[in-house]
Amino acid sequence: MSAREWVGKDFYRELGVSSDASQDEIKKAYRKLARENHPDANPGDAEAERKFKAVSEAYGVLSDPEKRKEYDEARSLFGAGRGTGGGFGFPGGGGGNGGFDFGDLFTGGTRGQAGGPAGGFGGLGDILGGLFNRRGGGPTTAGPSMSQRGSDVETDVRIDFAEAVKGATVPLRLSSPATCGTCAGSGSRPGTSARTCATCGGAGLISTSQGAFAFSEPCRDCRGRGAIVESPCTECAGAGTSTRTRTLTVRIPPGVSDGQRIRLAGQGEPGRGGALSGDLYVRVHVTPHPVFGRSGNNLTITVPVDFSELVLGGTLSVPTLDGKVSVKIPAGASSGKVLRVRGKGIAKRDGTVGDLLVTLQVNVPTSLSETARSALRTYAEEMADHDPRPEITKMLKDR
């Protein structure tokens, strides 16, 4: 894709968000549209597949704060001076000798242009350079060797709590663009090759003049590739890529958190012209456990206990993910006290291991036998001189 095509796209409109949308709004919009238009949910629907690719491309730019900033700057620069018929006008550009080449605008320009000295638009190339040479929009050069890094792809996987703690190997089934297996991405039928485009001479760009200005744009005959496939591959119809269903094995590392992304290098969309493929990002969703919780590397559990166990103390048997441990309750412990069991938490890949945090929670019975009631009354009489809330009592007396 040429720089002119990239800037002309409205990624905000593709995602249905405003240009000042937050990152969370952009993420929510992308995930909603990606689910609605995913090829698995719309088999054989070409329009849904086109929309899926478009929103993925838009998210690849807008989800990256630095890339989004450069994209916004580029749109601001060109949007303010956009002319008619696909050209661009610039203040003070009404005269001068020689034409203005659109390609010079993006490469810094070395010739004199109307309205400024030689190289007067060089700053634009600096601003846009990073945008067209990073993830999802790799370096592009004109000619038959025109190449572009493949776009990154994101998908979701759900695992249970124990798998998140201990790690797991999960099969992942994807339907996404991949390098054509028949032509190896060339687009030509095996045994044939593409010919150099006669219209652009293999440059991939053609120049047109509009008065004092000359503009370079992708060749319409070869679509900017610099070459024409005369005998298209029967599998991909000359595109070099085809939507294929594939199964990958994803290794989920131990200690992964809910919402964490795992990067699989080179498993995204294939590159163009022999360029590297993009990456696949797998977002992990962890199903909550009915008993255990998590705080960083620590496992947490809340254990109901009787009032007598808190007052008198004792030993408590507590489950872990791979067995059980004994925990000593100190006499006089209060409800809500947290007991720590060292080394029984979550082990991370770096060798660190968290703890098991046991929270004691007093359990109040809803019904009592007459014997138990009598015992409690006796206890209350014995504790009549004990005030469990002295600070509150003092405040009440002062009022």
UniProtKB/TrEMBL annotation:
One of its GO terms (molecular function) is zinc ion binding. Its cofactor is Zn(2+). Participates actively in the response to hyperosmotic and heat shock by preventing the aggregation of stress-denatured proteins and by disaggregating proteins, also in an autonomous, DnaK-independent fashion. Unfolded proteins bind initially to DnaJ; upon interaction with the DnaJ-bound protein, DnaK hydrolyzes its bound ATP, resulting in the formation of a stable complex. GrpE releases ADP from DnaK; ATP binding to DnaK triggers the release of the substrate protein, thus completing the reaction cycle. It is found in: Cytoplasm. Residues 132-152 are annotated as: Disordered. Zn(2+) 1 binds at C180, C183, C233, C236. Residues 10-75 form the J domain. Keywords: Chaperone, Cytoplasm, DNA replication, Metal-binding, Repeat, Stress response, Zinc, Zinc-finger. PROSITE patterns: DNAJ_2 (PS50076), ZF_CR (PS51188). A zinc finger (CR-type) spans 167-245. The J domain is necessary and sufficient to stimulate DnaK ATPase activity. Zinc center 1 plays an important role in the autonomous, DnaK-independent chaperone activity of DnaJ. Zinc center 2 is essential for interaction with DnaK and for DnaJ activity. CDD domains: DnaJ, DnaJ_C, DnaJ_zf. One of its GO terms (biological process) is response to heat. NCBIfam families: DnaJ_bact, PRK10767.1. CXXCXGXG motif repeats lie at residues 180-187, 197-204, 219-226, 233-240. This is Chaperone protein DnaJ. Pfam families: DnaJ, DnaJ_C, DnaJ_CXXCXGXG. GO terms for cellular component: cytoplasm. Binds 2 Zn(2+) ions per monomer.
